[in-house]
Amino acid sequence: MQSDPTGSGSGGPDPVATPAGSGPPASGGHDTHAHTVAADDLARARKQLLDGGSRTRRLDAPALRQALVDLHEFWLTTKGAEVGITPDSGFAIVAVGGLGRRELLPYSDLDLVLLHDDMDPGVVAQVADQLWYPLWDAHIKLDHSVRTVPQALQVAASDLTAMMGLLEARHIAGDIELTNLLIGGIRRQWRTGIRSRFDELVELTTARWARSGEIAHRAEPDVKNGRGGLRDVHLLDALAIAQLTDVSVGLGPDVPGGGLASAHDRLLDVRTELHRVARRARDQLRAQDADEIGAALRIGDRFDLARMLSDSARTIGYSVDVGLRTAANGLPRRGLSRLRRMPVRRPLDEGVVEHGGEVVLARDAKPTKDPGLIMRVAAAAAQTGMPISASTLGRLSDSAPELREPWPKEALADLLVLLGSGPRTAAVVEALDRTGLWGRLLPEWGAVRDLPPRDAVHTWTVDRHLVETAVQASAFTTRVTRPDLLVLGALLHDIGKGRGGDHSVVGAELVNQIGNRLGLWPSDVALLSAVVRHHLLLPHTATRRDLDDPATVQMVADALGHDPVLLELLYTLAEADSLATGPGVWGDWKASLIGELVRRCRLVMAGEPLPKPDPIDPEHATLAEGGGVHVMLTPAEGPHTFRVTVIAPDVPGLLSDAAGVLALHSLRVLSASVGSHAGAAVNEFTVSPRFGAPPQAGLLRQELIRATAGELDLLAMLEEKERVAKEEQALELGVAGVPVQYAQAPPRLIWFETAVDGQVIVELRTEDRLGLLCRLAAALEQHGVDVQWAKVATLGKSVVDAFCLNLGDADSRVTREDLESAILAVAPAPPPAKKDGENGGTAGSG
């Protein structure tokens, strides 16, 4: 706050206090000697505290702050009494800023307000001079103002920065009733006016973050103003005073790192030592001071200090996100908004609903008996882009049991959905990690959490880099036959860091135990371990070895066991890893070298095997021979998965009708095997209800018969169901219009030739959508294509669907182009290409 011209001047009263109640004398001179003596005492005491000389032990950071608070409070109360600032004088000394919060740092400004009860301006000027001059003489930076209570309230009403400062006001000396009038008035004004000032508060906060950056991922962070810094804690305090949120916002002392209060204390300690090292006020931690500050705080070297700062800043950053969101939802309603209906609870998954723009638990959810609930909540948040409510995370943290080993298939599928959700993944993982849930799912994560990179080219901490790599990989899932192993490999490729030794070797061993815990097939565990073991092989070889030497290519092929699937995964992971490392790491030169190495390795390796159909169960073959329409629904391996078997006369449209009926009943197809026997179709679907129990098999059979008879327009019904779902989400999020859902990765179609003339296999790699299998089958049937067999796999958000088509004499380039256009038309579309000069958002920001 700036000096009030009505409250300071060159003259001042006699330093001798007048009798209580009579007020200071009306005139007097500036007694330089008296001021100098007081200034010398204060300056000498401050110097002893900061220097820690032979007679004064060096205080640790919290003790030093407390000692500085005590020293300045003692001096101010003593000096106040000396100049007549007594309980009945009509004057009060009020501290704001660091002294007001009892967090006074060695070289911070002293923020003071001299309150008066509309006293004579001359008297006020004399008292102010006798208070301010000794502080200036002691070379203390002083931020001061002189106000009446109405003046202070008027300033706060027009200046949000002044309001935020006065919310921290604390009485030091003089008339406490005057101080209480100020504090009570400021807090009432803040609570009643928060609705009109909230947008400005958010705007100022985001502008500050843009200027100062994110503490957790900066080499030289601003520990006061950066995102996750001390100013953000003050923001939470202000929201709590407005009664819009709890100051702890769900992060108590039991979460990793000790929660919000512990994070706040650690940042205060760092800033205290930063002042002491620099011997002046400083907010930015310079690299050359990090080792000294780490040693002073008994943390370790600069890397240990950076890890602690990342943990603290991310805890505070998460708390601010929750606090601002909670506050926005809690703003008092006025006018017509008071008449708006309360948000409804819309089901998202079993035990998971959407409420007020957040993902929350259903009323009948039982976290203590549902180990997979954590992953379903996370997957729902990633798919919808909505945050998980803090109360839900707290409830899950307190009561959700550990997932059994191996994980149920549904839990693994939800993990893949989370990892395949693009930029929305990072915020969900961060929320789970800050509340201790992510570490329970992946205990190995603790070694890389907040681990700073040793290479300056890295933008992120190691754990955030892993998540960012998964974000990048989600855009490449259609390049590979195993998108599930791609995103898992991206998440785990550096999991061996922070443990000593070659992180690729250590990580490969860890991935063996992680893969077994996740419930992967043994062959998939081995493949995933190989991805982690060799994730640096292609970039290192391509940039350091002679690619024209046949021995180089042979060495890579031999190291990969001549496995083209492994080569494909490593090629894609190399790009995702580079893009997630930092700007400029992936470029045309590196891409061309790795691409050429991969091309030559493919020539050395054998080609990929063709997709092939699953065998038909003998019992199903017997039913097919008997004729009629049969629909059977039986439990599958997991508690929320079921197997639906459809056996019916093989007529055109049966596959799309069966898939459409399942989609209309909110049964998500996880895998499918489509075949025929004795003139009948034998189609088997593994499905998962999005919520609740599946319908009876008899109802599915009845609607299938109606669909095949042309009584149900399944495609139109699916379009309406999808439209309603989007509109409901738009209403919950407050979005104007229906949000367009773009795919993370563009769809890709691959043609395989077979040994039979006119018969081809087409494989679609794309992201899932409501009723996708129904739409695909309908597109093929509309072109008169005979589907010999099909094999469908849903891997998280991605699908890999293979269809064996009998084109007969109609097989031609034009036919294939028409089919390709029809198939790609029903797949989720990629986002439109950016125009020149158009910037996109940062992947995984928040």
TrEMBL record:
InterPro entries noted in UniProt: ACT-like_dom_sf, ACT_dom, HD/PDEase_dom, HD_domain, NT_sf, PII_UdlTrfase/GS_AdlTrfase, UTase/UR
Region (Uridylyltransferase): 1-347
Pfam families noted in UniProt: GlnD_UR_UTase, HD
Every HD domain range: 462-563
Biased composition (Low complexity): 1-29
SMART domains for this protein: HDc
Known role: Modifies, by uridylylation and deuridylylation, the PII regulatory proteins (GlnB and homologs), in response to the nitrogen status of the cell that GlnD senses through the glutamine level. Under low glutamine levels, catalyzes the conversion of the PII proteins and UTP to PII-UMP and PPi, while under higher glutamine levels, GlnD hydrolyzes PII-UMP to PII and UMP (deuridylylation). Thus, controls uridylylation state and activity of the PII proteins, and plays an important role in the regulation of nitrogen metabolism.
Name recorded for this polypeptide: Bifunctional uridylyltransferase/uridylyl-removing enzyme
Annotated organism of origin: Rhodococcus olei
